[in-house]
Amino acid sequence: MxxxxxxxxxxxxxxxRADALGRLGIASLFDLIRYLPSDYxxxxxxxxxxxxxxxxxxxxxxxxxxxxxxxTSRNGARTVSVQATDGxxxxxxxxxxxxxxxxxLKSGVSYYFYGTLSKKRGVYIINPKVFSEPTGxxxxxxxxxxxxxxxxxxxxxxxxxxxxxETREWLTDKIRDEFGLMPLADAAVGVHFPRTFDELAAAxxxxxxxxxxxxxxxxxxxxxxxxxxxxxxxxxxxVRERLETLLPFKLTRAxxxxxxxxxxxxxxxxxxxxxxxxDVGSGKTAAAxxxxxxxxxxxxxxxxxSPTEILARQHYEKLKAVFGDKACLVTGGMSEKERxxxxxxxxxxxxxxxxxxxxxxEDKVEFxxxxxxxxxxxxxxxxxxxxxxxxxxxxxxxLVMSATPIPRTLSLILYGDLDISVIDELxxxxxxxxxxxxxxxxxxxxxxxxxxxxxxxxxxxxxxxLIESSESLEHVSSACDVYEELxxxxxxxxxxxHGRMKSAEKENVxxxxxxxxxxxxxxxxxxxxxxxxxxxxxxxxxSADRLGLAQLHQLRGRVGRGDKxxxxxxxxxxxxRSAKERMKLLTETTDGFEIAKKDLEMRGPGEFIGKxxxxxxxxxxxxxxxxxxxxxxxxxxxAKTVKRMNxxxxxxxxxxxxxxxxxxxxxxxxxx
Length: 672
Ligand code: ADP
Ligand code: MG
Known about the structure:
Bound molecules: adenosine-5'-diphosphate, magnesium ion
Number of helices: 24
Shape: globular
Strand content: 15-25%
Oligomer: single chain
C-alpha cells in the first residue's frame, strides 16, 4: 500500500538524505507527515518597523538606501551591512558570514526580508532571509545537517500530495461535528502549509484532539480496570515511627501528613491510587520509602520505577540503607549474568524492595507477590507503562510522585480519579537559590566563579541540551564541546555525562561526582530529574532558551539541597521574547507552584502530560501547545466513548484505535 512507498522516492531525497531524516526519526512518509513544523514564518505581508515589536520576527518590505558594505572583524568574521527604509523609517540590515550578499543586494531596489527586529540600539534586522514576494505562512522544521529547510518543505509537500491521510480518518462524523474538528487529511495539510493562521489553529486543534482523546481513552480503560480489581489491605500500625528511627533527619510536618494519607490508602481494601506532588527537594523519597516499608512488613514486594538509571541507582542506595540486602537494582545496563541472577531472586521473593528503570517493565521481570508500585517523576511515564507495571501484581497499590507541580484542575483531568497529596514544605535550613542570567560577555566571569567555588570544595553542574555539535542546531552548545573547553580552562576535575555513554561509564562518572572526585560535571539533561548530591551548589544551564520552564526548574532543583548558598546561571539566547520571559520568571521566584502556573499560561498543559513512549518529539511538542478547552473536550468525548464501547461498534473502533497507540499493555487491560 501507499504506506510502503519509500521516502527515497521523494524528489531530492537520496540515500544520504534519507539517512539524515532517519536521525530525526523519520523513516516513512507517515513519519514525515507527522514531523510537524517547530515554527512558522509569517510571510503573508510586508510589515513596517513601527508595527513590529523589539524581538519580534516578521517580513519587512524595504528599499535599500545604499550599496552593501563589508566589514571583517579581528577574528576574520565577515559582516555585510546595508541601510534600508520601510518607507517611513530607516533601519540597518546585517548579514553575518554571508559575503555573497555583497553581490546579491542592489541600492535602490526593494526586497522582502524576513528576520527578527532589534530596536535596542538603533533599528536592526540580523541575518534575514530574502524573498522576492510575500510567500504566505512558511513552515520551519527542526532539521539536521544535510537537509535544508527547502528540501524538507518540498518533501513534506510531495508526501502530502499523495493524500495518504484520507484513509486514516478514525473519528466519526458525529464527534467531528460535535467538537468542530476538521478531517484528518485537511489537518495534516493545514498544519504544514496553512493558508491562514485560523486554518493553522483549526488544524492544530484537530491533531491535539486526536492526541488527547486517545490518551484519555487509554487512561479511562486503565482506571476502570483497576477499580474492578479490588486491592490489598495492609497493616500500617507503627510503621512511621519505625521509619523515623531509620532516617538521618526529622520528618517535616508535610511529610508526616502525606505518610498518613498513604497509610490510610494502604490500609483500605480499595487499591491505592495516589499522586504525591511536591516541589523539587521537598523530600518525596521519604514518602516512597515509607510506603515500601509498609509493603515489606506485610510480606509483599514493592518497586520504585525511575525514568533514568542514575535516579534508580540513587534510590537503590537509599533503600539499601533501610532494607539492607532485601533491596536490589534493575537497569538496562546490567550484564546478562547479573540480570538472570537478579530476576530469579525477585521471582523467588528474596529481594523484596526493588528500584529500577523502564527495564522493570520487561516481561522477564516477574514477582513473587508484588503489592506496591511507585513511579517517581511520574510525568515521564506514559499511562501504558504504569498500567503494565501494575499488571505484574494482583491489584497492587499505586503511588506516583511528581515534582512538576500540576495545577489541581489539570491533574484531575489528566489522572482521572487519582487522589492527591501535596508536600508543601521544604526541609528546614534550605536557602533560596540565587538565579541570574549570564550574557555571553560574562561567561568568563562565571567560569572563574565556578573554579573558585570548586577549589573551595563545592561542586557544579554545567548542563548542555545537546551531546555533540555535529547533530546540533547552530548556536547551541554541546556537552562534548563545553567539556573540552572547561577541561582546558579550569584547573579542577571536570567530568562528562550524557545519555549515549554506556551505563557502566555513566555510573562511574556519576559516582565520582557523588564522591566529590569530580568538581564540575558537564552533562546533558540526563540528570534533570531527582538527582540528589548535597555538595553541589552551582547549576549552570547552557542554551537555557531551548528548555521549558518546568525543565529549567527541575534542573535548578539539583542544587540548593544542602545548607550552602546555591546558584543557578542561565545562559543562552534571550532575544526571543518567550525565552526572555521564562528566564526572567526563574530569576524572580523559586516557587514551583508559581512557575507551574505561569508555565501553563505560557505553554499550555503539554509539559504536564506524560510523553508517549514512542516519544515522537513533535507530538510531545504538540501537546505543549494544547489549550485547556480542547483538553477538556477530548476528556469528555473519551468518557462517552469508553462508556459505550461495549455496545456501540463505532465507539469500540475508536477506542481500539486509541488503545493501539498506547501499545499492547493497554489493549490487554481493556479487552481481556
Ligand atoms: P524530592 O522531593 O525532590 O525527590 P528528595 O526526596 O530527593 O527530594 O529529598 C531531597 C533531599 O532532602 C535529600 O537529600 C533528602 O535526604 C533530604 N531530606 C528529605 N526530607 C528531609 C527532612 N525532613 N529533613 C532534612 N532533610 C530531608
Ligand atoms: Mg525525587
